[in-house]
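FORM 7B: Structural annotation worksheet

SECTION A. Query
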Amino acid sequence: MPELQRVAPADVLDSETVLARFNRLVQDLLRGSIRRNTFLPWEVDLMPDIEQCPLRDGPLRRELQRYQAAVRRRMTKGERVPIKFSEYLSSRSTPASACEP
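SECTION B. Predicted structure
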């Protein structure tokens, strides 16, 4: 009998679909309201990671927009899932990198 493997949803979805879901999630967060109740595992991981960041209001909005652009660039280069917000901030040399994963 062949061994069954559990495939993570990100492995099933193409990068274009993952990027569209990511963009929708970021737009929901920027708007301040999420209007859905079904999330993929990587989306569930991203939300508390973003929430833990001490940035608020304007600085957070600007960093989220920069983060969105960075994820878009990485995914067009072949990444399968978005990096965490804390990882993105850690890669930047800004005071905002104080977010904990």
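SECTION C. Observations
The two ends are 41 Å apart (CA to CA). DSSP finds five helices and no strands in the chain.

SECTION D. Sign-off
Analyst initials: ____
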